[in-house]
Amino acid sequence: MTGLGAVFRPQLPPERLRSVARLADETGLEELWLWEDCFREGGISTAAAALAWTERVRIGVGLLPVPLRNVAVTAMEAAALHRMFPGRPILAVGHGVQDWMGQVGARVESPVTLLREHLVALRALLAGERVTTSGRYVKLDDVALDWPPAEPVPVLAGATGPRSLRLAGEAADGTVLTASTPPEGVRRARQLIDEGIEQRVGQGIGQGIAQGIDQRREAADPATAIPSHDHQVVVYLLAATGIDAPARLRAELAAEGVESVPDLGVAGDAGAVAKAVQRLADAGADTVIIQPTGDEPDPEGFVRFVAEEVRPLVP
Questions:
Q1: pTM of this prediction?
Q2: Which of 56, 70, 127, 185 gives 181 a disulfide partner, CB atoms 3.0 to 4.6 angstroms apart?
Q3: What is the number of alpha carbons within 13 Å of residue 228 lying toward its C-beta?
Q4: What phi, psi does 122 have (nearest 5°)?
Q5: Which CATH superfamily, name and number, covers 3-313?
Q6: How far apart are CA 17 and CA 15, in angstroms?
Q7: Where are the domains of the chain?
């Protein structure tokens, strides 16, 4: 079954999150995703609040920019959420918007190198390993969590470019793709992710601090390794509904500079949105997170629309 969720966009004030999260829980929405866009709400603080206000809905953060965080802090916060709310947090890490990283003095020369080092160290720490490493950006000396997650937890990576997508396949448990990814882009992303997975299987995990942290996912023989479809791909889908939906969708695509990309976004009723979700699923998406436009006039109504009208139409 294709997973389905919605986004609480950070253009909304933080105090609006409570009503949206509780409605997501009450209506049976599977996942509610939050963003850590500079300089709006913090990802961990809002995720913790949303998890505390709800009982069953999974809360995703897509994504935490790694230049802003020491990996030990990321691991501590992720582990705490997973221990307090088992099975419900979903955390993705990524490069962050480079202009924003520059604004806060955190921009690095090689974002891919930083993301690789962060992913490897983060997954090791969350697996309960004691980590010592001296990378280009990530440096840890005999670090281990006192309270690692009680069960293995996936770590997702946000990625767009070819190198980052291959890295996601090689070093993460899943990938988050932006709403600027049409179905053909999802297919291409899957191919690049598969290349990364094949590289990981071919090289093994026995180098540096990665040794032994992923044994549950891969076997020594590539023929018996976990197939690539176990790498979860989450895709955002920009959507608008209501009488002014086409105009709002066009305006947002134009503002993002992607109005000429075919098959991007959807405007219309639940049937139209469900068909767009299915196109992404057919292209390789495991979960589609429906993203309202930034000027969505009724965020609570949008969550109800996704949960009660779109969900029944998505296999």
A1: 0.91
A2: 185
A3: 21
A4: -65, -45
A5: Luciferase-like domain (3.20.20.30)
A6: 6
A7: 3-313
235 close to 287: Cβ distance less than 8 angstroms: yes
